[in-house]
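Reopening this ticket.

The earlier resolution said the output was attached, but the attachment link was broken on my side. Pasting everything inline this time so it's all in one place.
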Amino acid sequence: MSGQWGEGPARGDDAPGALTADGANAGAVPPPRPGGRAEARRAAQGRPPVAPPGGRAAARAAARKPKWGAKKIVAWSAAGVLVLMAGTGGLIYYKLNGNIKSFDQDAVAKDRPPEAQADAAGNKPVNVLLIGSDSRGKNNSDLGGGEEGGARSDTTILLHVYADHKHAVGISVPRNAMVAIPPCKLPNGTWTKGEKSQRFNAAFSTGGSEDGNPACTQNTVEKLTGIRVDHTMVVDFSGFSAMTKAVDGVDVCLPQDIHEGDVNPNLGKKGAVVLKQGLQKVEGQQALDYVRLRHGIGDGSDIGRMKRQQAFISSLASKIKSQGLNPANLLPLADAATKSLTVDPGLDSADKLMSFGLSLRNIDLHDLKFVTLPWRFRKVDKELDIVQPDADKLFDTLKADRTIDGQNATGEQPPEAAAPTAPAAPDTGATTATTAAVSAASPLATGTANKDVKVSVYSGTTAPGMAAKATEQLKAAKFTATAVGAAKNLKYTTTMVQYGSGQKANAEKVAELFPGAVVEPGTSAGVTVIVGKDFAAANGAAATPGATGGSAAAPSAPAVPTPLPTSVTEDARSADDNICDRTTYGSGG
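Inline output:
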């Protein structure tokens, strides 16, 4: 390609027509500046450097000349750095784009959970599926120590980034949990029939490809959780190894020494120590040994391994955050990761990937949690069953964008029930907003300031942004309102205003803002608004094509999810927890 430094029909710095630093054809090229690109080329060609013109006399003359002001020097230097960054950045982004592979969007199931609704500020939660592949393809067999073909999901974590992008929780899915695997697309373009009960990591193996089947794993997770996966990322052995080197190692901790025979049970002997007891920094092969380790520690099950993986990711997140989430630090990490990265089409470019990475910079380590999907050992074999209804409670918590301790990610507590009022006339059930206007004159209604009435808002229609719009309308009337997300049922024809104990009069006040709304008792504390097709139509929105209408029969307030069992919450790990805690499971080893 012509027109570049030192390029053209005639090579070299003295070639006729060579470009000067400002791009002009000067005919006779002046001697190169010491330390510049030309001198670097001369050194590469084995030619002596060019001495600065003038020698000592010129140096003395230069010393007598007035110096630039410090501000001018800084400004000039900054401009030069920016130019170099722009030029280099283009090359880096081009390189990163060339690294990234994406899977076929057509392989993603058509019957998917609905997208998450935006909150009052227009922010949406993001669900990211992280998969660690144990593919032995390419040079991965040297790191994995196995010869089997195909690929399996060695690690799978569903990361829920809350709408405020200041909180996140990762759910580890046991690879041998028995789940239903839906129909998946094979490499030859055909679709499987699906399986009612199969190991979870069998989804990634579907089709036998060396690259695995991330779309099938995504389909399986969506079917299992009822949560829409926004992005999927797969990293294999070599990519993981390179990432740990890019951050100059990751701190880990072990309760005992780990030997060669523990890492490779087929070795037939104990062997030398490969990971020592206690705190240490690992990278490359050692880091891979740590996160894949299963034998010789605890009960040898996958549960302990998941705990170590959670501890490792926490430590890695801490390391990256301490170094600074900026392009200078992220680019080397991104270069290492993308060399062995497969993503969904939504993250298939360097700018998309970098933008997503930077969007996580405000998550505090304490607010990054990890939990394991509720499980139990099966009696008939060594596989695992997912425990219900505990697992569904966890999924409902994420759908409502609530933290695992039941709070809004913003820190706002669920509405509290008011103290019971004196017995009143029997509640006849639902009333319309017209009746509510009359009842609003009751002492409770007039005596309670709007700002003291907390309202949870859900979208009961497929029209986008309705919960956020209703929340804005409530806030304009001085109510304390929070857009929670989508209701379980998206077929509400009429907007519903539901109330908990002692909140009927407040619900009727709220209903005045939604003409035609139905006011009825609910199952949650406080006041809940579920906006329907009537509200969407009044605000110029239409339902998503293909959605069906019809009113909901005996709707129940989705509001605050059922609290999670202590078996889930007490086992949770924060990314700032001591990395020496909870790195194994069971006894033995």
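Reporter confirms the inline version is readable. The first strand starts at residue 101 and ends at 102. The two ends are 62 Å apart (CA to CA).
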